[in-house]
Write a structure and sequence with these properties.
The protein is of the alpha+beta class. The protein folds into 2 domains: 27 residues; 108 residues, Immunoglobulin-like, CATH 2.60.40. Strands 1, 2, 3, 4, 5, 6, 7, 8 and 9 form a 9-stranded mixed sheet that branches. Strand 4 and strand 5 form a beta hairpin. The longest helix is centred in the first third of the chain and has 23 residues.
């Protein structure tokens, strides 16, 4: 073998090692997020305001829920860690910190956390929450079976 052939082989081998090692060191691609339809129903006598609190101090208001009204939103759920997202910013999902609902007339005093733990842990494709009562007695939870 000539010196130029040896150099070409060494260059090809170096390039192959570089590309192979970079693919081995790259973290594995995460599975695509699952989607879950979340339905919130207002079973109280007052209109409700629901707000998603997203990462980086961003909020998104959902439509006002009149009594006996409901709203459905589609959330993303990471199959690896259960994190929930609502919408995207560029190519990144907007992670949900919290979801709050309260009466429109006195939202800050009546707001309640919507329980998201089950959504994070379940593989279900849909989930329902019902908000009942009013004032300090407002409670939002998954419906119970009769």
């Amino acid at each position: 073998m000539t010196k130029s052939t040896m150099r070409r082989l060494a260059a090809c081998l170096g390039f192959w090692l570089l590309t192979a090692s970079s693919s081995l060191l790259s973290p594995p691609a995460s599975a695509a997020p699952d989607e879950i339809a979340l339905r919130i129903r207002n079973a109280s006598q007052q209109p409700l305001r629901c707000v998603t609190l997203l990462a980086h101090f961003i909020t998104r208001d959902l439509p006002t829920l009149q009594p006996d009204d409901s709203v459905s939103i589609v959330l993303g759920r990471d199959p690896d860690d259960g994190s929930l997202s609502y919408g995207r910013h560029g190519d990144k999902p907007m992670l949900i910190e919290n979801l709050l609902c309260g009466q429109v007339a006195d939202w800050s005093a009546s707001r309640q956390d919507i329980p998201l733990q089950t959504l994070r842990a379940t593989a279900a494709e849909s989930y329902s929450i019902v908000c009942r009562g009013g004032g300090d007695a407002l409670a939002c939870a998954a419906p119970t079976s009769p």
